[in-house]
Design brief:
Number of domains: 1
Protein name: DMT family transporter
InterPro entries: YdcZ (IPR006750)
Number of helices: 5
Order of helices and strands: HHHHH
Pfam family, one: DMT_YdcZ
Shape: globular
Structural class: mainly alpha
Organism: Parashewanella curva
Helix content: over 70%
Keywords: Membrane, Transmembrane, Transmembrane helix
Distance between the termini: 52 Å
Largest sheet: none
Length: about 140
């Protein structure tokens, strides 16, 4: 139950953070908003790491460089989101983001066509795409 509540809290915090970054990007621009977001986040996490774990005494420089690309992808995500958020609105932006995450997660996990769940996965993917389309489609004017 704790993990469910933390997941819900995380979702609420993401929506709040995206809204605030969208507002900042209107005042400045998307890249300034992203830079400020990451600077403040870095400062906060640095303080928390120091308080809870002390000063790090060793770095693992032998790790494959590709594992650090998540940070670059995250920074790009925040910049793009800050740019798009105020243009499409909060609800549409979140729906598009969640749809993109779900589709990518399905592709990353790989779809096993021999699995009994394959039909459900394909149906779910179709529903995500249909929902995404319906959320951004403009209603036709009656003639």
């Amino acid at each position: 139950m704790t993990m469910i509540l933390l997941g819900l809290l995380n979702g609420a915090l993401i929506a709040l953070a995206r809204t605030l970054n969208g507002m900042l990007s209107v005042k400045k621009n998307a890249f300034v908003a992203s830079t400020m977001n990451h600077f403040v986040g870095f400062a906060l996490l640095s303080v928390l790491i120091f308080l809870f774990f002390g000063f790090p005494t060793e770095l693992n420089l032998d790790a494959d460089f590709s594992i650090y690309l998540g940070g670059a992808i995250g920074a790009l995500y925040v910049a793009i989101n800050s740019f798009v958020f105020h243009k499409v609105g909060a609800v549409k932006a979140v729906l598009l983001i969640l749809s993109g995450q779900m589709i990518t997660s399905i592709l990353i996990d790989g779809v096993d066509t021999s699995s009994k769940l394959f039909l459900y996965q394909v149906t779910g993917l179709g529903m995500i795409i249909a929902g995404m389309y319906l959320s951004v489609a403009k209603p036709r004017k009656e003639t």
